[in-house]
Amino acid sequence: MKILITGGTGYIGSHAAVELITAGHEVEILDNLCNSKRDVLGKIEEITGVEPKFYDVDLRDAEALERVFEESDFEAVMHFAGLKAVGESVEKPLEYYENNVGGTINLLECMEAYAVKKLVFSSSATVYGVQESPEYTEEMVTGLKISSPYGRTKAMIEEIIQDVAQSDPEFEATILRYFNPIGNHSSGLIGEDPNGTPNNLMPFITKVATGEIPVLAVFGNDFATSDGTCIRDYIHVVDLAKGHVIAMEQSTPGVKIYNLGSGKGTSVMEMVKLFSRVSGKNLPYKVVERRAGDLAEFYANPSKAERELGWKVELTVEDAMRDTLKYLQENEQ
User: Fold this and answer.
1) Which residues are catalytic?
2) What pLDDT, in 10s, does the model give residues 45-67?
3) Which of 17, 177, 315, 332 counts the most CB atoms within 10 A of its CB?
């Protein structure tokens, strides 16, 4: 299958590219490199033996995007491209709506114009907002009490995709809601390397481990959890990427929605202690005030993905820590 990956030089997109190529698919990548680096293409080639064709294109540039579709006869699209910093989205909401929602509309218009009817969309657990139960299932109502414009863009895109599928009975869409990807490819060649200030716990941990940031800020230790720190569901990025491949290969007409997570939570302090144990070095941290909107605990119920796709996690948080350390060692400056 010939697949276009938007955001394919990014953290999750690059791992999906590796898994798709390994599974025998032909991959082409589109990215504007706003939060990734072009040299990822060479690293994908080093892992797989294949360097994907690359388009330096922004989804908001409708004319450039159409030229991409004119040039290649795609059978499917895997859509990762989008801004993803929760805090930044609060500060720059219009930029997030224009980029994430506007870019996706351009993409869907091109897919319609060139009869590309298979889509896997990278969504997020943020669409669940605040729920009474910390165990999130796909049947829960989404779009309510979402704490950031970033999360609302994901919820809006899900609605748009469902409307497109409603209008075209041949359209196949799989929406994957995932939780907290961590780790990297076991080769150590590709991993999470965000431009600027990181937004998630794991890249903060790695920047503290390398001395780039002096101390890890733990946002609150008075939550109603076992150790007072927030609990989240962490999933190895390779497991996540494999889930995308399975979803693409098994898609059928209509819209399917799946959680991709481990099904269990790990607290911030458990993450700190685990990284210290795996690395053999104490990770300096300090407790600071809570961040507005942080929930005490949530995690995926991934049983639907296991039941319908035959997918489940195979790698642990500890595996992710080891792979992260290897990535740091392989990419020391």
Assistant:
1) 150
2) 999 999 999 999 999 999 999 99
3) 17
